[in-house]
Design goal:
mainly alpha; Four Helix Bundle (Hemerythrin (Met), subunit A); 2 domains; two-stranded antiparallel sheet; 11 helices; 2 strands
Length: 227
């Protein structure tokens, strides 16, 4: 026998769709459905989430539009990103907008450095030391791609030390843009005149000096942009 559902307890359709979107997003962020993997079929989602087929369809469509999922004809629906902002940023990333990207980096990284100097923990400092050492090693390797990744990892460690979850999420969304500005500044080879020491930034954070940390972070991003 089909159970009787109290109609008063059933939330409005729009609310059900929003809840379903959040459930799908949670499973993606939790790693249950990794990037590159296929999500369950529509009937399976209906059974697992306890909502109607149309609700599932609308929720999936919303995440496809956001750039998190991708429907592939005859194959299924796949996870293509865990971040809804990253595809938007990537679509807007063009050579003639690099100056804007640098300005956004500056807005994030200067404040992150200031907060990191106030909030860093011993674990954060150890992570910063490790990231700084890895950046130096990557520069020594002479490989541009390795240096770009190591530089981005150090800046990400600074943001993590700020202990502001929303700032960390937004910064992660511009990760591709961040790497692009560094790669553009470096060119095809790692030339000595393009090297920018980040040791003073880490030391300012270690010293708990927010004003100096902010100055050091901003200095890297003055036109012409550097790493």
């Amino acid at each position: 026998m089909t159970p009787v559902v109290d109609s008063v307890a059933v939330p409005p359709r729009g609310h059900r769709v929003r809840q379903t979107i959040e459930q799908l997003r949670a499973r993606i962020l939790g790693g249950e459905w990794p990037v590159g993997g296929r999500i369950p079929t529509e009937p399976q989602l209906v059974a697992a989430l306890g909502v109607g087929r149309n609700t599932v369809r609308e929720a999936v469509r919303a995440l496809v539009h956001a750039g998190v999922l991708e429907c592939r004809q005859g194959s299924g629906t796949y996870v293509v990103s865990t971040d809804e902002l990253a595809p938007v940023v990537a679509r807007r990333l063009t050579d003639d907008r690099m100056a804007e990207v640098v300005e956004v980096r500056r807005a994030f990284e200067v404040e992150a450095a200031r907060l990191a100097a106030l909030r860093r923990t011993p674990e954060d400092l150890a992570a910063l030391d490790g990231a700084l050492a890895a950046r130096e090693a990557a520069w020594g390797s002479g490989r541009v791609a390795d240096f770009v990744e190591a530089d981005a990892a150090l800046h990400t460690a600074v943001v993590a030390a700020a202990h502001n979850g929303m700032l960390a999420e937004l910064y992660a969304s511009v990760g591709t843009a961040l790497r692009s500005t560094v790669a553009q500044a470096m060119g095809d080879t790692l030339e000595p005149e393009r090297y920018v020491d980040h040791g003073r930034l880490v030391e300012a954070i270690r010293a708990g000096d927010p004003a100096r940390a902010a100055i050091e972070a901003g200095a890297f991003l003055e036109p012409p942009s550097g790493a």
